[in-house]
Amino acid sequence: MGIKEKIFQTKTRLLLLKEQILDNVIQESRAVLRHKNEMGSFFELTKVLYYLDGKKIYYQDNSNGLLHKRPEFEIYNGSIIPGNHSLTVELVYRGRSNLFSYLKGYVFKLRSAYTFYAAKGRITQVSVIGYERGGIGTDLEDKPYIKYEVKQIQNRAKTAPAAAAKKK
Fold it and tell me: Nearest Cα to 16, choosing from 28, 30, 4, 6?
């Protein structure tokens, strides 16, 4: 890449930053990532690890007992650049049962990757759900699974000050 192209790209980035900071023209996106544990009583969540675009954003183990007590909690809530984003999740479950003692020896390591789109000026809500799939005939090893639910809503925080200014 030539020096003229680098200068042009730098000028373009500076103009976009100027618009964003001074004129508030570019609306940012926001991501809210939530973890939900919908596993049955035979599975105890022992570790949670989340990566957003390759960077670790959350880690928690069950050494303090919090993971098992909280069926739902927030992983991330913040600004994000509009566009595609990669979410990687690692969950570790341990078998749990007073009736079937052999379950305590089972460890289930789940790893899943998901790509979501963050639209400009919107809040993208991603729920990551660890759940038990199948029925009575499903092998124990095949039950733990991860699914994703995505919802986008209008980012009202950006439009509220403009609406208030029009009323005055």
Answer: 28
What tokens appear for 155 in the block? 């980012």
Domain boundaries, the chain: 3-167
Count, residues in the chain: 168
The sheet carrying 107-118 orders its strands as 55-61, 43-52, 83-95, 107-118
Taking the chain (168 residues) in runs of 10, the rounded mean pLDDT of each run is 78 72 61 94 91 94 84 92 94 81 81 95 95 86 92 70 46
Structure tokens at 83: 């566009």
- Say if domain 3-167 classifies as CATH 1.10.3470: no
8-state DSSP, 103: G
